[in-house]
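Researcher: Predict the fold of 8-oxo-dGTP diphosphatase.
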Amino acid sequence: MTRTTPEAERIVVVGAALLDGSRLLAARRSAPADLAGRWELPGGKVEAGERPEDALVRELREELGVDAETIARVPGEWQLRAPYVLQVWTARLRPGSPAPRPLEDHDALRWLDAGELWDVPWLDQDVPAVRELAELPPLGPA
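Model: Structure tokens for 8-oxo-dGTP diphosphatase follow.
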């Protein structure tokens, strides 16, 4: 039996499928210790009263030092440990944005093309979202 979290008790965590053409940005965690060395889609928690798209732009600025814009929400929502749920948006760098660099909780970044998506050990919680991304253009079938 799957326990669902009532809408009012959910906390949305946004993840960015930051794209550069047909490449996806992966970020390697440096903290906390139990997640260090594993890879994720960068992002973070949506603050009270904040739209998920705005939270994603803010988180990318804080974590990677970039100016990004969201494109579209990836179909699906993935339960993390209650009450958190993961939602993912595709995003791209705005013209003139600095290149991404690890600022908070990451020690490495890597651009992955479609053939390299599974070359890094993703955090378990990000695997279903990466699977979904692998099926969408520009990474997967058109």
